[in-house]
From TrEMBL:
Residues 296-318, 746-788 are annotated as: Disordered. Keywords: ATP-binding, Chaperone, Nucleotide-binding, Stress response, Transit peptide. This is Histidine kinase/HSP90-like ATPase domain-containing protein. The lineage of its organism: Eukaryota, Viridiplantae, Streptophyta, Embryophyta, Tracheophyta. Residues 777-788 have a biased composition (Basic and acidic residues). Gene3D superfamilies: 3.30.230.80, 3.40.50.11260, Heat shock protein 90, C-terminal domain, Histidine kinase-like ATPase, C-terminal domain. The keyword Cytoplasm does not apply. It holds the Pfam family HSP90. Residues 100-262 form the Histidine kinase/HSP90-like ATPase domain. Transmembrane segments: none annotated. GO terms for cellular component: cytoplasm. Residues 299-312 have a biased composition (Acidic residues). NCBIfam families: PRK05218.1.
Amino acid sequence: MAPALSGTLGASSVAALRPCAGRRAPSAATSVAPRGSGAVRCARGLRWETHRSRGRSLRVRCDAAVAEKPAGEEAAGEKFEYQAEVSRLMDLIVHSLYSHKEVFLRELVSNASDALDKLRFLGVTDSSLLADGGELEIRIKPDPDAGTITITDTGVGMTKDELKDCLGTIAQSGTSKFLKALKENKDLGADNGLIGQFGVGFYSAFLVAEKIVVSTKSPKSDKQYVWEAVADSSSYIIKEETDREKMLTRGTQITLFLRPDDKYEFADPSRIQGLVKNYSQFVSFPIYTWQEKSRTVEVEEDEEPKEGEEATEGEKKKKKKTVTEKYWDWELANETKPIWMRNPKEIENTEYNEFYKKTFNEFLDPLAHTHFTTEGEVEFRSVLYVPGMAPLSNEEIMNPKTKNIRLYVKRVFISDDFDGELFPRYLSFVKGVVDSNDLPLNVSREILQESRIVRIMRKRLVRKTFDMIEEIAEKEDKEDYKKFWESFGKFIKLGCIEDTGNHKRLAPLLRFHSSKNEGDTISLDQYVESMPESQKAIYYIATDSLQSAKTAPFLEKLVQKDIEVLYLVEPIDEVAIQNLQTYKEKKFVDISKEDLELGDEEEETKETKQEFTLLCDWVKQQLGDKVAKVQISKRLSSSPCVLVSGKFGWSANMERLMKAQTLGDTSSLEFMRGRRIFEINPDHPIIKDLSAACKNEPDSTEAKRAVELLYEAALISSGYIPESPAELGGKIYEMMAIALGGRWGRSDTEKAEASTGEASAEADSSEGTVTEVIEPSEVRPESDPWRD
């Protein structure tokens, strides 16, 4: 459809229309002459149309004819190649990809390992390549005086064209090209241990070097070439080696001329030895470093003549002396072999333990280990350990960045700094190694990228860890699991809170003290197996100590009925159980909360309910808003009363914990604090006395004081913290004075002082004093509940 321009113009405006190209513009008279309509065609595809309306206006329309493209034909565009500023690109690679300078040695050793691997593969079909050049090995020689590091390998080497292709082309990976060739040649196969993939690892040497010299000799060429480049330059030099002393039989020699700021650190032989052990300890080829060593040798020296003796030169005696001599020699840096690459059936437990101690600097044997290989979507090998003891430092507990999992890619160490990518926080105590060829890494090979592969690996590692812990729990010797639980029980409870997907595997691992097993812990399976058929729930109580749990008033009726109760005595226990909610279709029930159903309660008679309803109402009236309601208790047998929490909100134990939080929000305490219900035991003498006071003398001051003290006592015995401990102490002293007053007799002077004190106390009370102190008296009223 051609685009159109239309509008309504007056007759005087038509003359202002510009003429069409190549034609004379029609006048207004000729344009308006046709009474119906008119059309004028112009050059360049324009067509003007006029339409007269009934009024004085004239409607003009202009259509532009646009050539339409044939179907399926697209406009041909010009193709361009991306351009890059080489110096800027090199600067980004060197200074932006890597977090730590020390990784340069890992990258260069990995390149040397790839060169040796390539030669070994090529030697399968052409044995002449391995004829000269000695063993397949890597040697690293730091020179502190010259400020250089020399890395030499006896690998495949490079020709001049390969130098330009591999080192002269940024992000051109020779290893990747070799792998592609291997895959195309199915006779050679693609199972290999080659490391490189990005083609930028070599340039990490510029992190510490101001100049790099690469001397290389390929078996394919008779000539040896030298590649030279300096930092912050966009060019390099390639020349033929002419110095016979620097000739190589085969392989590559890289010399790094260190920057002034880095030569003191990285030219140190012990530092180089440590980096090799950390990053390249499990490279499949031997790595030798130039180290200073010492040895004891015997030397002869002239013996000093004794006093008074003179000896001629020919008669001087020689004596032997042992001295320490220092010398330089090559030392193997990667003695430890990657145990995870071997068949588990061929490895003894002592080998696993030795590997664990060397790798993680431990002195105790692990409690358990697991060695497995995973194939399928993700292929990786792993050896995991449960340590023999918990971390000594509190900072390592529950810390996801514990450096306990060492990640390798093709036996080259990548990182041990993870934030929950491979293991959840509650399993951060597990130590081990993971080696994979499929991990998605960033270009610097330092950061594990989030991907589906990582999630699959994490899931399988967690599953294998649970299998390992379950094996400890199922052993006949329960001491091992007892050690595990004492060291890592808090971690498993944390898992119940953070990992809802693994509740079925976490819950059987839990252990608790109980009312029937105070000395030892039991599992939830043991609890359920010992439950009577009539019991429908798993009962527990949360307190601050084992002794508090044993003496809690909430237990009385349950112990009487032989119902087992779990003791949750650690701060994390209650939250962990609340997150589990059920176990084997049995609900967890807190016996310190309201509406406790024990299953066989006898129905009270109507008369008894009416009797104690009156007492409950009277006690509620005395306590006011301190409690939500007062009711008859079904859980007490020996205690007079107890204060229970409502169904919703915090328990007494949780309220105590939340108040102790350093950064706790005090405004949330009132919102989350559960309502308090005062339960009384109708069979207790104190309650019976209060019931009599309620009926006979409801306004008795002593009875009201007894209710207040009863409430305060129940507050403490139920696990709550009184708001005013001093006020509670005063009430206790007051009631003690009433109970003990004159029981053992006093002198007349003391009696007079007591009477005076009583009179002054009454005067103070009439004046509205808040604190009232009453001295004991010989005369005790009839309504005194402590009267003999």
